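Morning. Coffee machine broken again, so started the prediction first thing and wrote up yesterday's gels while waiting. Chain of 214 residues, entered below exactly as on the submission form.
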Amino acid sequence: MDVMTIVSLIGTAVLSYLMGAIPTAYIFGRVLKGIDIRTQGSGNVGATNAFRILGKGPGTAVLVIDILKGAIAVAVVAGYLSPDTTGRIVAAVAAVCGHNWTCFLNFKGGKGIATTLGVLIGFTVAIPETRGAVGLCVLTWVVSFLMTAIVSVSSLVTAVVLPIFMLVFGAPLALVVLSILFCFFVVLRHRPNIQRLLNGQEAKVSFLWHSKKQ
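Came back before lunch.
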């Protein structure tokens, strides 16, 4: 690996991390309601808490922007600086780490689901073998959410099946390993949710066919 390649990878990592680290929900909370969203609801700096505290419109905007952070890091930043698979993997990990552990909020961020989806979408642009796996993951999340009305359950289930889908669709081994790492990140960031699930205390979204709590 030559010097220019190393410099490109470092640049990709730094820019992707900073992009992922933009605390979208925190910014929206400050601008729209003058609040620190970390002190409201679940205290999480992510789209789910933004929906709860800021409403559907701002929550949707936070979700879309958090997805774009990951997609742009992989498809654009890495696509320009380090367009091979290694560069895109570096961008993906950096962007998700930036969201999860943002330097702008004392390294306390969101849970990374939207940004992880974003980096996966970014991979579908460059690596066709990932498209089926990503599509099935989205479907898995939606079906699980409609069945349980619990965002954390849907996210955990999808994280677990992601490596399996990558294998089934013949994605490069490096991306299978990356998907395992993302699964680890999701479980790590959802430890409080897992505890609430075990205690029967995790909040549900209110659908007609679901009660609000478990």
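The chain is about 70% helix and 0% strand. Going to sketch it on the whiteboard this afternoon.
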